[in-house]
Fold:
Amino acid sequence: MIASTPSTALIGHLAVLSLISFGGIPSVLPDLRDVIVTANGWVSEREFANCFAIVQAIPGPNMILMMGFIGWKIGGLPTAIASSLAIFVPSCALCFTAFGLWDRFRDTAWQRIVRRGLAPVTIGLVVAGGYVMGFAGDAGWISAGVTVAAAALMLLTRLNPLWLLAAGGTVGGLGLL
Structure:
């Protein structure tokens, strides 16, 4: 049996997640957090939440960057590069192949059924990822209150979510959370 290093375990897991992540990596964020934080302890809960927050704030392919950051922490530059590749190459290859079939059978009944079924699955997975990150970034009752207040404001008003992000960043930047 071949011994698995943290780097190879991470890369293998990311390749599998890449293939099943409908809606992008946020849809499999709960599993990703479980493997990286809970099961293996490669990064702390706070480091995971901080990494997620950083990549959400910078432009570019954020989840590829996040996997690069985590790969860097676990195994340096080679693991960072391999982690970034593992998160998008398998899904890109699958999408490229599937698109040919999808386009060929675009008028069939099964395709409409699959499209209708994938939408709620994707939404549920993304909501689960948000739920996990809400708890990962929670630093106490004040932080939980800010999270609930921001969610309520977003759902109950027409306030632009960028204002909520700016307010949260300001409060966090001032060290109030």
Remarks:
- Residues 55 and 61 are 8 Å apart (CA to CA).
